[in-house]
Amino acid sequence: MKRGRLRVLLGAAPGVGKTYEMLEEGRRLQDAGVDVVVAIVETHGRAATAAMIAGLPIVARRRIEHRGVTLDEMDLDAVLARAPRVALVDELAHTNVGGSRNEKRWQDVEELRDAGIDVITTVNVQHIESLGDVVEQITGVAQRETVPDAVVRSADPIELVDLAPPSLRDRLAAGLVYPAERIDAALSNYFRLGNLTALRELALLWLADEVDSALQDYRAEHGIRGTWQARERVVVALTGGPEGETLIRRGARIVDRSAGGELLAVHVSGQDGLRTADPAALAAQRALVESLGGSYHQVVGDDIPAALVEFARSVNASQLVVGVSRRGRLAAALSGPGIGATVIRESGDIDVHVVTHAAAGGRFTLPRVAGGALSVRRRILGFVVALTGGPLLTWLLVALRSPESITSDVLAYQLLVVVVALVGGLWPAVFAAVMSGVTLDFFFVAPLYTVTVSDPLHAWALILYVVIALLVSVIVDRAARGTRAARRAAAEAELLAAVAGSVLRGDGSIPALVARAREAFGMSGARLVASDGTVVAADGEPVRDDRHLRVDVGPQAVLELHGSESEQLDGSERRLLDVVVAQLAAALEQADLQRAASSASVLAETDRVRSALLSAASHDLRRPLAAAVAALGGLRAAGPALDDADRDELLATADESLGTLTSLVTDLLDVSRIEAGALAVALRPVDTAEAVLAAVDELGLGPGAVELAMDEAIEPVLADPVLLQRVLVNVLANAHRHSPPGTPVRISTSSLGERAQIRVIDHGPGIPAERHGDVFAPFQRLGDTDNTTGLGLGLALSKGFTEGMQGQLVPEQTPGGGLTMVIELPLASSAAPEGRIEG
To answer: Is the pLDDT confidence value at 36 over 90?
Structure first.
């Protein structure tokens, strides 16, 4: 019997329309004459979904008794007995009720497929097993119901039912996904715009990987070796050398420029095991690749270019990144083209990036002035030219010798000396001049084959020849020195410009200067150490304590350099080092000034708060104090002449004013304790419903002013009951004050993961999102000019109290207008044991 096909409708979140699409497809199949049944569909109270079921055959559900409760489940046996052509099975990740034949619904689906029944099903991306940890990081909710990736991947086809996050939130707010009592909590928790956007991207990427796997299978089945660049896939070739990190970061930047790109790093090791790399460097590079979201691979092959290209083709790579060869020109000339050139020739339609790096000579280092004008390699090459060119020239001239050829013979040897001088400088040219003079005397000046000169004029000619050769070599040597001096001057100018630019840029200037100093003077490590021993900045290898160069950077720091030449800086290098040190001192001074400026801004803010406090105290504290003084003064002045009614009124005025004054002073003291970090919090399990009802009672708000939507199943939170009630009173009073007449304030509770939320929702004028942070500033009454409403400390205190209880107080926009204050606290079952916490 042919196994049934599986068709999966994948969604990023509940409510995108998977079930609706599944039922719509069922209707289309039924209209086409296909035998379709509804095995199980969950409508979740959605009228549009329920309407789509009408007219489709439905297999009755099986009723199962579980722990005293009767629950409905898909009747697997009934569906098998009905044997339809297509079965519609909703929620593939569902966990069956205890007592069912299979633990999971996807196992039921596998039985249906084994019976030859095609299945159309739905699943959300958060239920795919391999994505559970990623989804938990995004949403904060651990997924207990999952489907193995292999089950979903076995589907043919997998279709994405997509809906833009703003549209999904609009559907949710309109009540098309969840009942009204769950809308606010859902919008502010799982269905946040950022969560939905991340889940949508996760679904798209997972489906793209699945499509890519299908493409690879198709190419393998049909023997297609050419690359189909459907997505950007970058392969970085690693040798185990120091350039690896540079290549990896370049490849990562290429990947980042294209959505859905993939980074792969590969190292080719020899089949004989003799080609070795630095294991520590490879391990570090592997960790870097994985931290950048890429993958590391190792292949075996003696022909490195062929192995690299073959690997790139096998993964359908679009680009290949290799480093510039570390070999010198002479080695390249002797051993032929390097790996990079061969890879470019054999890559075909794969783009190849050849990246320079420090190991290839790309690092900025000041040219050396001390020592010979030319490098040791150039001088050796000059001697080689003299030793090989001299005998060859002698053999040629002897073969063509005639009595009249002495002049051309001399000029030929003179040319050889000039060539050697141009190649190797002074000492190879002197060697070539002396050897040429002796050779001319021995082979071309009579008497031949002796070093004896019979004619004094010939001896003088030989002396002039050697002198001319020496002068030419000296001129060449001086020109080389001048060229290198000019190159050195340009390098010094570049270094000084970089140093000055680093200081002017400000941010990150100190690490940049330390790195520039290490590179410029050819050191292997450098660090800037403060006077207290703290390392301010470091670059390169760790500085060894046994041997390094120390330079004072003012009284506050020391620059330490170490390397093979750290004790051999010449005078010009010392002067440049002094310039770098001076700029470092300026950068340190600039950093000190920035810290001082930051401290000054803090002091200015403190002064602003103090001024606000004095301004508030001058009015808001004076008013109740003046009323109390006037009432008590009236009592004293009138004495027994007052009747009982007037006396009671004056006493009531004094009592109310003193109560208001006490409340204001208490708020000021609480703000001071919060800012000083001396707020005492006694945490214990608190029932949210009791706290909310206590706050409502304290404010004297009736049923018409407050609407409660409490989650009865919510666990107690870990909180200080006194502080929690004060937070609720402040937030609820603020919401009631700004709500339109006749519109009640809504209070709802819900839980998400290990946190609980109390939401106080009003439909007043609201606050612009960009000013949400201002509502928690002390002495702020946004849009409120009525000084009788207090000092503007209520929300500032509420935020401090909530954070002292390890929670958060967050303002949000109310759908349809208004402000929602969310009080988030940890559940007692998931928090620290009961105790007293000072915060």
So the answer is: yes
